[in-house]
UniProtKB/TrEMBL annotation:
Signal peptide (UniProt feature, chain positions): 1-40
Family statement drawn from the similarity comment of this UniProt entry: Belongs to the bacterial solute-binding protein 5 family.
Keyword Methyltransferase attributed: no
Organism this protein belongs to: Rhizobium indicum
CDD domains: PBP2_NikA_DppA_OppA_like
Swiss-Prot/TrEMBL keywords: Signal
Protein name per UniProt: ABC transporter substrate-binding protein
Residue ranges annotated for the Solute-binding protein family domain, each copy included: 95-451
Taxonomic classification: Bacteria, Pseudomonadati, Pseudomonadota, Alphaproteobacteria, Hyphomicrobiales
InterPro entries linked to this entry: Peptide/Ni-bd, SBP_5, SBP_5_CS, SBP_5_dom
The organism's place on the tree of life at top rank: Bacteria
PROSITE patterns in the cross-refs: SBP_BACTERIAL_5 (PS01040)
Subcellular localization, as worded in the UniProt entry: Periplasm
């Protein structure tokens, strides 16, 4: 957490509110989730105009099944503009209707998806229950290579189409977090005809029913989209045109916004510095707590030994690591997955603290067993991450019998290098993983089949505790289950948690309709250009 007193107070107030909200949701009987979209803005929206959003990397294809985290500036930002979230999680943690009116359940077992009437894809085909079922069945097929395949294949056979606007899903066991998982893992629906017409993933044409349609894609550089006149929620979208510029380097992204070459970028206050007060520029906090984490390969290599994971935690002062990463002091290392303001936080379960003596003892023990601590750090070509990797390498070389190699890849290739090929010992992904609530991210990160479990950590005990937490509406039982989870995180160290932050937008001050959702990704149908400054 940053030392700035104002930021500390704001984050504390938000987390207390989030904690109260989460408790109210878990005590509700039965499970219920919001069915309509939230109020979008306080200013009067203006139709017309263009905005340019900067992303750090391009997408590999327009396949709606290839999702990769709902953080702003990532690949799903672009897919959302074309396809739209079927439901999304607002910044208070509530599942909210998007392309669908609602996804609800009275018992956490049988879920009902209610679509909006008369929606059509831009090829004229109906956006109906059969189209949704086709997309989810396709994503459940291992051949599609969807990151959400393990999740979807556990229930897609139990989908029943009731009528064109309605389908039901009967789960094999209660899952109070199912709607939030859908919003995170499989929210995009494309025209079945467009998907069937593509022989290869690279041939898929982006035919959705979302707020915008693709008009130009200059791969690796930019893409341009036009307002979808058939969008269900008229007069939205307000913008005539939305553009995405691909700029991998953080400093270049900042300069582009400050100079007026783009409307906004997502980042963190430490990155912005004095640019945040430049003429015509404003910042907007996305009030969603997230954790900085790195993946530890537990399928092969040194981190298959829990002693190596403990040695890594003990060897590095995580507060100093965050200072090297952000070039700002005042951070406190998180003690576990949940923050101290979470209703689930367990003060009795803490990750190993910085202890150089303990680290050296563990390095020595590993070496004596024929397991020298020599690791490959994989991250992408970003100045902040370069500093972080260099700091880890520098610290480790100060221990006898420990060393590290740094491998840099472009951001778009990181998932393939780490998650698919498992070619790493420690893999550092930029940004934070949202943790203002428990699900769906905690299971995605820690369960054996989790979509974010890049290190392939597998624990029957962890899986059981996560399932226990998701199978009850009793808040005491939920908390008890998450106490078990935190104990396992502290003792098994399945992932390297080194910091906690909230994201922020650096944007032109005439940007209106900023509505963050899920991990901070914006609902683009609400965006508009103000006649004058509308952001402070």
């Amino acid at each position: 957490m940053l030392s700035d007193n104002r930021s500390r107070r704001l984050q504390s107030l938000f987390m207390r509110g989030a904690a109260a909200l989460l408790l109210s949701l878990t005590t509700a009987a039965p499970v219920m989730l919001a069915a309509s979209h939230a109020s979008a803005q306080t200013e009067k929206p203006v139709s017309g105009g263009t905005m340019t959003i900067i992303n750090g990397s391009d997408i590999k294809s327009w396949d709606p099944a290839i999702t990769a985290g709902t953080y702003p500036g990532g690949p799903m930002d672009v897919l959302d503009a074309v396809y739209g979230f079927i439901v999304y999680v607002n910044d208070k943690g509530v599942v909210t209707g998007g392309m669908a009116e609602s996804l609800t359940s009275s018992d956490a077992v049988t879920w009902t998806l209610k679509l909006r009437k008369d929606m059509k894809f831009t090829d004229g085909a109906p956006y109906d229950a059969e189209a949704v079922k086709y997309n989810w069945d396709r994503a459940a097929d291992p051949a599609t290579l969807s990151p959400a395949q393990p999740f979807i294949s556990s229930w897609n056979k139990a989908i029943a189409v009731v009528d064109p606007q309605t389908l039901t899903i009967k789960l094999s066991s209660p899952n109070a977090n199912f709607a939030a998982q859908v919003a995170e893992l499989c929210p995009f629906i494309a025209s079945p005809a467009a998907l069937k017409a593509a022989k290869e993933k690279t041939d898929i044409k982006p035919v959705g029913a979302g707020a915008f349609t693709l008009t130009e894609w200059n791969q690796g550089i930019s893409m341009t989209m036009a307002r979808n006149p058939g969008y269900w929620d008229q007069p939205r979208p307000y913008l005539d045109t939305i553009k995405f510029a691909i700029i991998p380097e953080t400093n270049s992204r900042i300069a582009t916004v400050v100079q007026g070459g783009a409307t906004m970028m997502a980042g963190y206050p430490y990155q912005f510095g004095s640019n945040a007060t430049a003429p015509g520029v404003a910042t907007r906090e996305i009030p969603i707590r997230g954790i900085n984490r790195a993946y530890l390969n537990q399928a092969k290599g040194i981190f298959t030994d829990v002693r190596a994971r403990e040695a890594f935690y003990s060897a590095i002062d995580r507060a100093r690591l965050m200072q090297a990463f952000t070039q700002m002091p005042g951070y406190k290392a998180p003690s576990n997955y949940f923050g101290e303001n979470s209703p689930y936080f367990d003060s009795a379960s803490s990750l190993p603290a910085y202890d150089p003596k303990k680290a050296q003892e563990l390095f020595d023990a590993l070496k004596a067993d024929g397991k020298p601590f020599s690791i490959k750090i994989v991250t992408y070509t970003n100045s902040d991450l370069k500093r972080l990797a260099a700091y880890i390498q520098q610290v480790l070389t100060g221990y006898e019998g420990a060393s590290a190699e740094i491998v840099e890849v472009d951001q778009a290739s990181l998932i393939q290098r780490c998650k698919t090929q498992l070619d790493f010992d420690i893999c550092v992904e930029g940004g934070v993983l949202v943790s203002n609530g428990a699900e769906p991210n905690i299971s995605n990160l820690l369960s054996s089949g989790g979509a974010f479990n890049w290190g392939q950590y597998k624990s029957a005990e962890m899986d059981a505790a996560l399932k226990e937490a998701s199978s009850t509406l009793d808040p005491a039982a939920v908390k008890a289950a998450y106490v078990k989870v935190q104990k396992l995180v502290a003792t098994e160290m399945p992932v390297y948690i080194f910091g906690e932050q909230t994201r922020s937008l650096l944007l032109r001050n005439n940007t209106g309709g900023v509505v963050p959702s899920n991990g901070g990704i914006l609902q683009k149908q609400f965006l508009y250009v103000c006649a004058d400054a509308c952001q402070k």
